[in-house]
Specification:
This protein has 89 residues and is mostly helical. The chain contains three helices and no strands. The chain has helices spanning 5-25, 32-54, 62-83. Helix 1 (5-25) packs across helix 2, helix 1 (5-25) crosses helix 3 (62-83) and helix 2 crosses helix 3 (62-83). The longest helix has 23 residues, at 32-54. The N and C termini lie far apart (36 Å).
Length: 89
């Protein structure tokens, strides 16, 4: 599989925005820029695995991908918070 430079930049941008949104919504301090990107990308993976099995479709385009990834990142952050025992990040 080949990802172009532009595609990689879009993935990083979507991951950054989704991770930042998830950090603000979950009321955590976030994990820094690299951590937010990782959480956003991992959230996108969680959402891409979970939502089709539930029959949820959000549409196409960059904004829907950011929303999709942010919802997945929120789910991921809530799971991390549960595992850590509810402590603040």
């Amino acid at each position: 599989m080949y990802i172009s430079n532009e595609g990689l930049l879009v993935i990083l941008f979507v991951g950054l925005v989704a991770g930042w949104l998830a950090g603000k919504i979950v009321r955590g301090a976030g994990f820094g820029i690299i951590g937010d990107i990782v959480i956003g990308i991992a959230g996108a993976l969680v959402a891409s695995l979970l939502f089709p099995k539930l029959g949820i479709r959000l549409g196409t385009g960059l904004v829907s991908e950011i929303i999709y990834s942010a919802i997945g990142a929120i789910i991921l952050l809530l799971v991390v918070r549960l595992v850590r025992g509810g402590r603040r990040f």
